[in-house]
Fold this sequence. Notes:
The protein has helices at 14-26, 40-47, 63-70, 87-95, 108-128, 161-172, 180-188, 198-209, and strands spanning 5-10, 29-34, 51-55, 78-82, 100-103, 135-138, 141-144, 149-152, 155-157, 220-223, 227-230. With 235 residues, the chain is an alpha/beta fold. The strands form three sheets. The chain has a five-stranded parallel beta sheet with strand order 2-1-3-4-5, with helices on both faces. β7 (141-144) and β8 form a beta hairpin. α4 crosses α8 (198-209) and α6 (161-172) packs across α8 (198-209). It comes from Pseudoalteromonas rubra.
Amino acid sequence: MEQYGTILLVEDDESLAQWVADYLNNQGYTTECCYRGDQVVSMVKQHDPDLVLLDIMLPGQDGISVCRELRQFYNKPIIMLTAKDEEMDEVIGLEVGASDYVIKPVRPRALLARIKANMRVAQDNDAGTDTNAVMLNVGNLRIDTQARKVIVADQEVNVSSAEYLLLHFLASNAGEVVSRDAVFKATKGREYDGLDRSVDVLISALRKKFGDDPQNPEKIKTIWGKGYLLVPSAW
């Protein structure tokens, strides 16, 4: 069977973890399981998985703080596993650097689709590093595509991996309205499902970091019914 990559599954319910791991292994992935939050960082450093599936409620250390710690050195996809209707967990997870989230109870095919999409985006992003311009400039906004750094008026701004992908896509299309569907395909590798609010969360986080008034944004606008617009003249 063709191998598609390695996954670290972090889930304290051992029976559920084994069931998900068996399913993913049968789909061509190599899956390692971790049952405690305080063991994740060392396992990621040891195995360097292609993707981390990270539950939020964990013994030893919660998934939110684990994700925050991982993002200090790990740039590959992190998919959070959140309880149904726990919107705050989804928001906080995205703010600390999660690439995506899946709501429990886990549906195997939906989970597999998210894994494939996030790995595809990560691979495309890595492949594009050598061919894209080293520096993307929009006014005082500079994006170093090799170092994955964001600089505004000569000051570096810390952004999560998900925020970086979104900002890079918007800046690459500065002055043009990009649809929500186009944003999802470019940054998440899948179509917008009509319910997912993760892009709105990321837009809000970027506005906050760039001092853009959420009530009357000038730098990143939401064009109702059409999509999003990064305004070159506002930078």
